[in-house]
Amino acid sequence: KEEEVKDEVGGAGECEEEPACVQAGRRSPRLDRGRSQEKKAKRAAGVRFKSCASLEGWPGEISYTHTPDMSEVTPADKRLLRQDYVPGVSIRRVTDTAHPACGQNGLYATITFGVGDVLGEYTGKVMPGHWGGEYVTRLWNTGANSDYYRPGVDAQKMGNELRMINDYRSVPGATGPNCKFSRAAIRGFRAALIVAILPIAPNEEFLLDYGEVYWRQELMEADCLPPGSPGDGSSGVKEAGVSAVLPSDLEALENDLREMVSQATEGND
Fold first, then answer.
1. Is 190 strand, coil or helix?
2. 10 Å Cβ neighbour count for 13?
3. Residue 165 per-residue DSSP state
4. Distance CA 160, CA 206 (A)
5. Which residues fall within 8 angstroms of residue 234, CB to CB, at 6 or more apart?
6. Cα dihedral angle (257, 263, 267, 269), rounded to 10 degrees?
7. Partners of 93 in the β-ladder
8. How many angstroms separate the Cα of 126 from the Cα of each of 93, 117, 181, 254?
9. By C-alpha distance, which of 11, 188, 5, 164 is closest to 89?
């Protein structure tokens, strides 16, 4: 059998060097990991940020970084730092029959959260502007209509524990939300965080305010807008749902685009 194998590859004595495909098969797994890391480094290097040389007040002798430098951290310490799941929270089935989400999931605290404590980052798939859905939150929060035409995070099919947070409306004992969205920059990109706005005790449910646009859309789809609700025509709020484009929306978007182009031009100069 050994002779047959040698014949198949051309014979061990007939070739001074093994074919490239055989050499590749003998390659060390450690070498493969090294090459894989090189590829990852090249991909990471493809993400470029503006130089901070023109950042007012930044000292020139200090390096500016969007991410923590972990080059001095040991593998053991990295394992300690790593968080596979959002800490301090637990997904539970809602069993209270008076709860509007009875039979569905909710998110509950396992530790005490103080006002201003960050629960974590709302993750999912970043989608382009105009994208709507029950699990979409915007990465801009300026209050302008143009926020809805900028990228957002959709946690419909992917995300983390924070997508399980319910709205506070009609929840027994709830008088309002106990946490809210807050926008920030993480690793050099815009991100949506959820922050506690009231003290939250262990076993207490996290509750958000989904916002007027969400509930207006829900009621429109259910065709049950009650009198005086936003969008039924009797209130002072114009119906400007996610799917409706008004002249004022286009004007605001055009102004924002002009401002972005102007800033980009100034940055290049």
1. strand
2. 7
3. P
4. 14
5. 227, 228
6. 100
7. 105
8. 28, 24, 16, 22
9. 164
pLDDT confidence tier of residue 54, bands split at 50, 70 and 90: confident
What does the DSSP 8-state code read for residue 125?
E
Residue 110, classed as helix, strand or coil, is coil
Give the whole-angstrom CA distance, residue 188 versus residue 57: 19
201-228 pLDDT per residue, tens:
999 999 999 877 665 555 555 555 444 3
**Side-by-side strand order, sheet with 152-154:** 125-127, 152-154, 136-138
**3-state SS assignment for residue 205:** strand
Chain position carrying tokens 């900028």: 150
Segment 31-53 shows an average pLDDT of 58
In contact, 84 and 61? CB cutoff 8 Å: no
Segment 36-42 long-range contacts (CB within 8 Å, at least 24 positions apart):
none
Q: Is 204 in a helix, a strand, or coil?
A: coil
pLDDT at residue 64, rounded to an integer:
86
Residue written as token pair 């014979």: 11
User: Sheet harboring 189-196: ordered strands across?
Assistant: 118-121, 189-196, 179-186
User: Is the separation of the CB atoms in 88 and 110 below 8 Å?
Assistant: yes
Asked if pLDDT for residue 140 goes beyond 60, the answer is yes
Statement: residue 65 has pLDDT above 90: no
Terminal Cα-to-Cα distance of the chain (whole angstroms): 72
d(CA 249, CA 116): 33
Close Cβ partners of 51 (under 8 Å, ≥ 6 residues apart): none
Residues 6 or more apart in contact with residue 54 via CB below 8 angstroms: 267
CB atoms within 10 A of CB 153: 23
Helix (H, G, I), strand (E, B) or coil at 65: coil
